[in-house]
Amino acid sequence: MNQPNDAIRKELEALTCRLLEKQLTTDQDARLTEILNAYPDLIKDYTNQIHLDSLLSASLYESVPEGINVVDQENLSHESQTTHLGIPSAELPASRRFSFRLRGIALVMVVLLVGAVVWLNQKVPPRQENQIASRPDYVGMLLDTEDAVWGHDDLEEDIPYGTQFKTGQSLWLKSGIARIHFQSGAGVVLEGPAKIEFRSPLNALLHHGKLAAYVPDEAQGFSVDTSKIRIVDLGTRFGTVVDRSGEAEVHVFEGEVDVKPVMSANKKLANLKASQALRFSNGTVQGAEISVTPAKFADVPTLEQLVAAKSGNYPPQETIHFENHQPLNQISLIKENSALPAGILVGEDFEYPSTSLFQQNGGIGFDHEGWWVDQNFTRLMVPEKRMQWGGLDGGPMILEARGRHHAYPSLAHRMARKLETPLKDDFYFSVLVQYHGLDGDDFFGLWFDDSKGRLGNSHSLVPSVGFKEGQFFARFTVKDEVLFQEPIDHETFLLVGHLARKNAPHFNHLEVWVNPVGDRVETPDVVVNLPKEGKLLKSINALGMRIGQYTEVTDSLFLDRLVIGDSYEAVTQPAAVQK
């Protein structure tokens, strides 16, 4: 593990201060995340600074004497200024800027208040170590999901992110993944089939299923019960797999855990440290050693998600501003020439008198409801230079989609839209794409499905094309994907595909070309056929695009000239010349 030096600690302190003052740029936000990932030992310093600021903020506004206007006092100490924050403000309390003088007043008030409480309550027994003051309204909160299928008749088919769960409430996850924040500060990821019961901010009962947990210092003592054992976290990451018979595996990735019998909390069966794992079977008091396997478990919630969830307002809603925001060039919207060719089935050139694609209902062959987009991370813009490949030119406006911020849900969907008429026959498609900031962690996927789905749908079992791990890919499912060629950062490429039925009532054949020159309809770069696990699509009713979970928020993906036609020639020909 990397050990931070004084320079790194000072840099983290400076970046955290800028974050609290709402002066953090997008690049600085990326650097802050990089430091926390590279030096886990500094996470405690970071969270302590956040918590102290929260305490001072709350104490200041609750304790200022009547008649004193805090905002007026701030204005005496600070010049009015406007900043664009590179992370969602929902991660922090609404008011953040305080003069040092007011912070000092607040700190004195806090000290005096604590002293008075202690003096007045000397006979009250002190709070036990790791005891968390529980709010009566909720114990846990749903952060995000991936392809979750719930097994509850009394819950909606799709549980909204930010849904809060009370003590005694259970969640039954038939399949998929769900990430949960506990009020104590712990974060867990649940993988179905699984059933979990919320007992307190520091405890949950896992009836069966797979669970991994990240437990920061503030939640130390967080425990997970099975029917036979209790796993008590002593910091920081662990996982468990429980079957319906009560057999359980316990894996420790960082820190250590104690394993105790549920019926005898004072007795300890085992103490496991990092890189150790045991299997506990019915009737046994000593677990059998097994290999620790982190890859068996899904990713736990990010630190940024847990910080954002503490506000009780999740997911974050405030727009993350684009730097160097460019005004619309109204002259460029005079459509003397469209980027779309003639005779196509579906097309979008992203030309609208707005910076947002949300609910825009233009284009050809799309449903009247318009586009769904994540407005926090997408915008319409006028590029300095139009996108171009070969003889194909983009239009005067393009769509920009940014990477994923770690405080937001893991499935970073950027846009989706229904088609006016479902596609039931073979079709071809093409799109101009350019990426800025490309590296091996980045992911972009254009998918085709029979519905738009919800935010928790990954569309991982449907035809998709794009790039990942530094290469282009084509697939029906993750297991059958084929990687080929390498995209080049900052260069425009033309992505062409053909989705067909080969002696079947559903789409089962995908061909893909990258930057095809000449008539190459018979020579695609890659061919993929539908495996047994794939979704049997008899029609295509919607399309969409998403960014990868580990894509940096500073990255940008640019799209233009999205076209669907009934032939290879239809989607690779230049735009129609208007007379």
UniProtKB/TrEMBL annotation:
Pfam families: FecR (PF04773). GO terms for molecular function: sigma factor antagonist activity. It comes from Gimesia aquarii. Keywords: Membrane, Transmembrane, Transmembrane helix. InterPro entries: FecR, Ferrdict_sens_TM. This is FecR protein. The chain crosses the membrane at residues 102-120. Residues 204-257 form the FecR protein domain.
